[in-house]
Amino acid sequence: MVLGHLPVGYIISKMLFRTINARQATYRTFMLWGLFGSIAPDTDMIYYYLFDYRQYSHHLYVTHFPLLWLFFLLLSFMWLLHTKRRQYPVYAIIFTLGGFVHILLDTIVGGSMLLLAPFDYRHFCLVPHVPWDATQYKFLSYGLEALVILWAILVWSGSSAPDAAEQS
Ligand SMILES: [Zn+2]
Q1: Is residue 61 part of a domain?
Q2: Which residue in 25, 77, 101, 114 is a FRET match for 93, CA 20 to 30 A apart?
Q3: CA torsion through residues 5, 11, 16, 21, sign
Q4: Within-domain flag for 147
Q5: Å from CA of 134 to ligand 1 middle
Q6: 68-107, pLDDT tens digit by residue?
Q7: d(CA 29, ligand 1 centre) in Å
C-alpha cells in the first residue's frame, strides 16, 4: 500500500478520538500523532533510497517489524495505566497503533513482510503476486487503496465539525 496509509491513519484517529475523554487529549495533537504513526514505518525509505537501494524491499527493515510496533503499543497501554497525566500515553497509543496498522496493510498487498521478526525471518504475504497476473494484482492493490481513500473522504465529509473540546 502506498497512498492508503495516511487515509487509514485519519480514519482510525477520527474514530478513536470519540472514544477517549476530551480532557485526555486535544483533537489536533491526537490527529497529528495518528497521521504521523500511519506513515512512520515508511520513513525507512530515506535510508533505503540513500544507502541501500539494492536491497529487495524496505519492508524488510526493522521499522516494518510488526512485533516491534505491537511491543510499543502494549508499552503505551501500560504507560496509560500507570500515570495520572494521560495525554502523553494517549498520543503514544495512537502513534504506535497507526504504525502497527500500517504494517498490517503492507502485509495485504505490499509484498514480503517479516511478520515474526526478530524471532523468525520467514517472509509472509497475505496476497502473493502469484497466481495473479500483473494487471490483476495492480487492480487489486490500487482498488484497495481507492476504497480506503474513498472511506476516508466519506468519514471526513460526514463528520460534524469538532466541538470546542476537540479544537483546543
Ligand atoms: Zn510501509
Answers
A1: yes
A2: 114
A3: positive
A4: yes
A5: 20
A6: 999 999 999 999 999 888 899 999 999 999 999 999 999 8
A7: 23
